[in-house]
Here is the input.
Amino acid sequence: MIYKHDQTSIQGFLEDTSNLKTGHTPGVYFPETTDELSELLKNAVKKHQRFTIAGNGTGTTGGRIPLGDYVISMQKLNRIGEVVQLSGDSAYITVQAGALLDDVQKKVEQNGWFYPPDPTEKLCFIGSTIANNSSGARTFKYGPTRKHIARILVVLPQGDLLNLRRGTCIADKNGIFRLTLPDTGHIEFQMPQYLMPDTSKHNAGYYSKEGMDLIDLFIGSEGTLGVVAEADLMLIPHPEAIISCLVYFKNLDDLFRFIRLIKDPENALKPRAIEFFDKNSIAFLAAQYPEVPSDSSGAIFLEQETTPETEETDLDILFEKMESCHAMTDESWIALDRDEQVRLHEFRHTLPLLVNDWLSKQNESKISTDMAVPEEAFRELFDFYCESCEQQGFVYIIFGHIGNAHVHLNILPRNREEFLQAKALYRKFIAKALALGGTLSAEHGIGKLKAEYLIEMYHERGIQEMVRVKKYLDPFLVLNRGNLIPVAYLETENY
Ligand SMILES: Cc1cc2nc3c(=O)[nH]c(=O)nc-3n(C[C@H](O)[C@H](O)[C@H](O)COP(=O)(O)OP(=O)(O)OC[C@H]3O[C@@H](n4cnc5c(N)ncnc54)[C@H](O)[C@@H]3O)c2cc1C
Here is the structure.
């Protein structure tokens, strides 16, 4: 197995997109087989080694950044199998954890199939998207990654291989999982005992639901309970055609009414994505796209799967809803062919690039929210975001997955003083979202950056439930120290 420890070749493993700068490690291992990975973990305690698992570094929460532990890079475990058709409308593909999402999506598409999870940034590894239960724009229709995983092969913290197929290990009525591992033998433990929030997306802390499947405990556990080595991803037939559009509104109330109409269960359109850009995001984009209307208060990006036979009817319904909500129809962007849709996707992806460019000139980090709330509370949180930022005179943008009552607010500080003020405000945003029944993280996870805030959501009891599960599966705290559960809770003897 390759092992690197010279600083120049391992420097990249101290980074992701979180801007966390405290990472350090003695070295990085690159297992090429699951057995090598298992051996590494089996010997960990004997060799006094702990590990942080590294995907491709696109995470936003410092999850893969080691705080002094060794790193396991998943990049050599990158094989992609062949599509296996199960029926006319279902198939699966087996992939190793280090396969790039982009490569997997392209391969299944070439075979006429579709893998729905799409967390915007395609240069991430499949294993990380499972460890983080990643979502993205299409989550509105298809749910997060966990909905599309049929099997995972996990290497547990003490090196046991757990081949876990969905449906084969379910918590009993007392919440107990029972299973037999190749080396350790029979184990049983209780699932976490807390309620998850009633939001349409939630990705903060271990999954917990009555009668839950053990596979769902590992999915979204941010590498704290095991290393995902391989997975079977479920596929559906590739949609025949897509209608993509960016619809501008002069008035924000009209925009919110449009969303309500589009999401109405009676509506014949069933979009797969409903995304939002506020007026400040639009102003950023106007720098590169002069055709953007300057008098717009916000825009909705919408994607509807269709067929050549239904496209015209779907467009008629869309235009009718746009008109009834006074959308800026003439200025809006309707993309029907592939090239135009690629241009519209580029437009969306230009926003983070422009923001990062702006920030690098200020030499400051952004403060970014990832909270979601129940549908009926969304407008209150949204107005609170805007009013608070306006009052303090911040430069900010709001964009993202409004279909799931989940947007990202980015405050862009111009100096250290504003950064500190924004950080204080961030705490108020968390308090507000939680008071509205929301979640601290809807999709990006907790990592190291947000671990200190998790207590506000789960309180002492909930955190101790996570500690109990973590300590059962990883008694020597070998994996991903500092992620999700604040280190102080793992080091105390009170569990
Ligand atoms: C511009 C941009 C947009 C984004 N948009 C979205 C979005 O819309 N939705 C969304 O959900 N995310 C989004 N993300 C976040 C990010 O892309 C995802 O979290 C992704 O899953 C990270 O993949 P990675 O390979 O880069 O993982 P890394 O950053 O390398 O690691 C992420 C975490 O996963 C753990 N990990 C990695 N591999 C494994 C494994 N095999 N087993 C166990 N644990 C493992 C790591 O330890 C770490 O904690 C965005 C990121 C960027 C930069």
Observations:
- The chain has five domains: 2-73, 84-237, 239-350, 363-445, 451-491.
